[in-house]
Amino acid sequence: MGANITMKYLGVRGENLPAAVRSAAVFSAPCDLESGATVLDHWHNALYRKRFMRALIRKIKLKDAQFPGRLNLSKIREIRRWRDFDEHFSAPICGYRDAADFYRQASAKHFISGIRIPTLLVNAQNDPILTPACMPVELARQHPFLHLELPEEGGHCGFQSRNDKEFYWSEKRALEFVSSYCSAVHG
């Protein structure tokens, strides 16, 4: 979600970003939250769904302890699909009417065209939870600031280096991308 949130922020803010923000790099961005929720419910993503859901339910319980009475924890028992979680928790916590409103207003795909700084988006082709709707290929062809890379491998946030045990490939790629724009500004 961090990559989606970053892309939405960049698109909404456009040219009105803090001066220190000159470029960005995001990886494994679920730019279309509804398609991501749907694909998470597929049987082959049960491992991801269970892992993510367990972590999110822990966070919901912590939020309930911080803000007593604002959440209805009994709704946890009603969660059968990812969309149920978004309906009962993600949408209301973030101020959206319902899951459909959340998907429409929080998905980066609706805001990417407003990005006005060099932005690298890397989504692996073998990412099990990103759909074609998360791969803005046509937009990237025409967008002067969006640099889309679709490596064959990487899974979901698993861009490991084959020869480097210390750094992930994604870390090196992000640094390389943003450094090229920092040196262009300072050089």
Strand content: 5-15%
Could you report the average pLDDT, rounded to the nearest whole number? 91
Q: How many extended strands?
A: 3
Share of helical residues: 40-55%
Rg over alpha carbons: 18 Å
H and E string = HEHHHHEHEH
Which of globular, elongated, flat, extended, rod-shaped describes the shape? globular
Textual characterization of the structure:
With 187 residues, the chain is mostly helical. It folds into 2 domains: 1-32 and 107-187, Rossmann fold; 33-106, no CATH class. It contains 7 helices and 3 strands. It has helices spanning 2-13, 33-40, 46-66, 82-93, 99-106, 137-142, 169-186, and strands spanning 24-27, 119-122, 146-149. β2 (119-122), α6 (137-142) and β3 form a beta-alpha-beta unit. The longest helix has 21 residues, at 46-66. The chain is globular and about 50 Å long.
What characteristics describe this protein?
mainly alpha, Rossmann fold, about 190 residues, 2 domains, 3 strands, three-stranded parallel beta sheet
Structure at a glance:
Helix content is 45%, strand content 6%. The chain has helices spanning 2-13, 33-40, 46-66, 82-93, 99-106, 137-142, 169-186; strands spanning 24-27, 119-122, 146-149. Strands 1-2-3 form a three-stranded parallel sheet, with helices on both faces.
